[in-house]
Amino acid sequence: METTIQASRRERRIAARKSTILYAAGRLFAEKGYHRTTTKDIAEAADVSEGTIYNYFISKDDLLFGIMTELTESGKLGEQLQSSYLEGPREFLLTILQQRYEFLQKNGDMLQAVLSEILVNPELRRRYYEELIIPSQELLEHHLRERIERGQIRLIDPSIAARILLAMLSGLFILQVVGDSVIRSEWETIAQLLTDILFEGVAPG
Amino acid sequence: METTIQASRRERRIAARKSTILYAAGRLFAEKGYHRTTTKDIAEAADVSEGTIYNYFISKDDLLFGIMTELTESGKLGEQLQSSYLEGPREFLLTILQQRYEFLQKNGDMLQAVLSEILVNPELRRRYYEELIIPSQELLEHHLRERIERGQIRLIDPSIAARILLAMLSGLFILQVVGDSVIRSEWETIAQLLTDILFEGVAPG
Amino acid sequence: METTIQASRRERRIAARKSTILYAAGRLFAEKGYHRTTTKDIAEAADVSEGTIYNYFISKDDLLFGIMTELTESGKLGEQLQSSYLEGPREFLLTILQQRYEFLQKNGDMLQAVLSEILVNPELRRRYYEELIIPSQELLEHHLRERIERGQIRLIDPSIAARILLAMLSGLFILQVVGDSVIRSEWETIAQLLTDILFEGVAPG
Amino acid sequence: METTIQASRRERRIAARKSTILYAAGRLFAEKGYHRTTTKDIAEAADVSEGTIYNYFISKDDLLFGIMTELTESGKLGEQLQSSYLEGPREFLLTILQQRYEFLQKNGDMLQAVLSEILVNPELRRRYYEELIIPSQELLEHHLRERIERGQIRLIDPSIAARILLAMLSGLFILQVVGDSVIRSEWETIAQLLTDILFEGVAPG
DNA sequence: GATGAATGAGGGTTCATTCAT
DNA sequence: AATGAATGAACCCTCATTCAT
Question: Do the beta carbons of residue A202 and residue B151 sit within 8 Å?
Fold first, then answer.
């Protein structure tokens, strides 16, 4: 029994270490970029030796992919959205916006780090697209279609509309990363106005 | 006079060479990213020696800033927008979307390369924000305010609305870069639907 | 008594494990060379942990010396040669050649691996020379002197002649290792011709 | 004209540098082996920076191949042997032995360095065999066949005999490298006795 | 101004060895 | 005695930058 507990303690320590390294890397990548972060930096930030990194990841690239995976898993548009047709469509949109906001609060750094490389690394980009964008796109599209059928929103192309929505969310993130401080501080207002515009339009009267 | 002509000829030759190098660098940065492009690569692509690059740019980073400047200059939302209040607001939005599309057609690769670094290089980011984002934001905001005053669109916060519009444009670019092929192929449809939604909303009936 | 038996059982187990590790190392060294073989490779091949290797050998180098010793012990020109003066000298030479051939069949790989390091590691070289070359040289020299005294071969310097013989044997090994396939396939013919030449010479008539 | 001279001076300096690096590497490889020699060592020995090595050789391995090539070029059994049928066969053998001796005096270190790796690096081994062993073997074989036809030596299989000769030469080298000091100091005596034995045999009377 | 050989700091990665369990 | 995670020095190699020509 003693042994079992010890073993599991060890196992837990090991699992934790992998995670520690990954988060240290993520933080640094976001801070100064993948290429300007050295394995030495990561080792120091994670408080392990450089060699240890390679007991958990096969290469520096592998860390990036690891971060990718982490994002993928926690970054999907919540499945709960699927069973939320009972909410009105406005509430639905506000919920999505809120979810995104919280996700970015938590994973913004990592997303920023990965996004930088995605723009420039085809393999990473492919994975990002297939594992994050496509599922999100499909989820939204499906949801919109349903809402349209139920007459909760008017007849528009759900595939295009889903893209517009996703672009909106991505764009707000980019703008914020690039330096716009209003987006974060006025998120509530933005979410309200955005919902308002999308549902009512800006046409006068 | 002879001297003057020679000098100006020389100046032109020098300017041309500088440009050649910058474009070669831009092409390569877009292709494989800033960090994966070596000065040797650039020298070969521009058909000069590595040393020569340093006669025109003080560092590799300086090339990036040079590209930034190039983008800044051609990337501003056209000044003609300022004097286009006569157009209806829908036409105005469609014009912007069209302009953006054309700009991205031409400079998308470079923007992609620079954006990757922007996400991760504070100094570059600051310049990008100040030289491109803020002016665009202000232009749009000003324009919206004017339209609102003229009663062409209903009363909304022009500062937030401008951000939403910019986010929209940025987001569509990102989505396309990341792999969505529909955005390019269906640009017309997207522009139409987007305009439609923004003006009329998606609320049924 | 119980204890004694256990101890000896234990000793045997320990000796066996030491041997397992040594052979695993030998096999790998022969396959890809000393420096390209990692302690991890050896541990896997011997089905022990890396740490365990260090319970039996003080360092990776020590494994090489261990293999050296193994070779030294099984590689000596058979002692039986010493009491074989009754055979004719031709038979004697053929016997030596046959012995060498068999030895190389069995230990060629290890010899190859060790030889590679011998050429380049002074300490190993010294041991090889003192433990293998000198004894062989002396054995042969002594044997030749005896034969000469008995009038079975003509009067030649036995020290030099022994060296020539040893060089011959070493050279055939090297040539074979380096890629000559004939040496192995035609060993019988070579042994015959070599004996023939050494005893009768190649002068015509 | 000035320019031409300068250019050629530079070219000469460059060619010399490549050679300097190669010889420094060769010396060190022979001294402590390929794997124990670092590129830093080589740089220091050649009095250049580490980076400079890579302006002339694509990798550390490439240095080894460069040494190989050097040996190949200077290591071939002299072509003059081909037109030396007028000499008696004994003189011919002595000439070969003398040539080998001189070659090893000059290139022994490099040969030793390369040989160590050859034993353990298949690609290097293949090249060594094809570029050095086979040509030597064929040259000797051809020569022996000619001598046999002219009745200068008796009827023996020239292919096998050539191998025996080559083994002899290789073996003497190995023995010397491994620590036998007599071979070098008594080379004359050895050459004489070897010739004597090969032509007259050791059979008594 | 143009060249490209030379530089050397610094990069990612490996691996023999140690030691807590 | 056995384990294997942790270590960190050392490795080979790259590349932005310099400078003599």
Answer: no
Q: Which pairs with CB-CB distance under 8 Å and at least 24 residues apart come from C102-109? A: C103/C74, C103/C75, C104/C173, C104/C176, C106/C74, C107/C71, C107/C74, C107/C75, C108/C173, C108/C176, C108/C177, C109/C26, C109/C27, C109/C30, C109/C31
Domain that holds residue B150: 60-200
Distance B51 CA to E10 C1' (A): 22
Q: How far is B2 from chain A (nearest CA, A)?
A: 49
CATH number of the CATH domain containing C162: 1.10.357.10
- CA at B54, C1' at F19: how many angstroms apart? 12
D187 Cβ neighbours under 8 A, 6+ residues apart? D97, D101
Q: Where are the alpha helices (DSSP H) in chain A?
A: 2-32, 39-46, 50-56, 60-75, 89-118, 122-128, 134-149, 158-178, 182-185, 187-200
Which residues in chain B come in under a pLDDT of 70?
1-7, 77-85
Contacts of residue A151, defined as CB under 8 A and 6 or more positions apart, other chains included, come to B204
The B 29-58 residues near strand E by Cβ under 7 Å are: 48-52, 54-56
Sites in chain C below the pLDDT cut of 70? 1-7, 77-85
Q: Which residues from 149-178 of C have any strand E atom under 7 Å from their CB?
A: none
Bigger pLDDT: A84 or B131?
B131
Distance from CA of C143 to the nearest CA of D (A): 14
Rounded CA separation C100/A90 (Å) = 91
Summarize pLDDT for A111-130 with one digit per residue, the tens. Answer: 998 999 999 988 899 999 99
The answer to whether C129 contacts D179, with C-beta atoms less than 8 Å apart, is: yes
Per residue in C10-63, pLDDT (tens digit) is 778 888 899 999 999 999 998 899 999 999 999 999 999 999 999 999 999 999
Please report the pLDDT score of residue B16 as a whole number.
86
Tell me if B202 and A161 make a contact (CB, 8 A cut-off).
yes
Do the domain assignments include residue C173? yes
Please give the pLDDT value at position A2: 44
Q: What is the pLDDT of residue A106?
A: 86
| Contact criterion met (CB below 8 Å) for B96 and B77 | yes
Nearest DNA or RNA nucleotide to D46 (CA to C1'): E6
- Of C34, C157, C182, which is closest to D193 when you measure between CB atoms? C157
Whether residue B205 lies inside any domain: the answer is no
Residue D3 has pLDDT above 50, yes or no: no
A18-22, A84-88, C82-86, range with the lowest pLDDT: C82-86
From A112, A101, A137, A100, select the one nearest A29 (Cα to Cα): A112
> Do D40 and D13 form a contact (C-beta atoms < 8 A)?
no
Q: Is residue B16 part of a domain?
A: no
Q: In chain A, how many domains are there?
A: 1
**Is pLDDT above 90 for A196?**
yes
Verify whether the Cβ–Cβ distance C125 to D178 is below 8 Å. Answer: yes
CA of D61: nucleotide with nearest C1': F12
Rounded-to-integer distance, Cα B77 and Cα B135, Å = 8
Q: Which of residues 37-56 of C touch strand E (CB under 7 A)?
A: 37-40, 50-51, 54
pLDDT(A8) > 70:
no
Contact D51, D39 (CB under 8 A): no
Q: Please identify which residue in the block is written with the tokens 């980009």.
A: A125
Distance (Å) from the alpha carbon of B125 to chain A's nearest alpha carbon: 6
What is the rounded CA–CA span in Å between residue C171 and residue C97? 13
CA nearest neighbour of D28 among D7, D5, D9, D53: D53
Q: Which nucleotide is closest to B61, CA to C1'?
A: F16
Cα–Cα distance measured from residue D158 to residue C182, given in angstroms and rounded to the nearest whole number? 13
Does residue C116 belong to any structural domain of this protein? yes
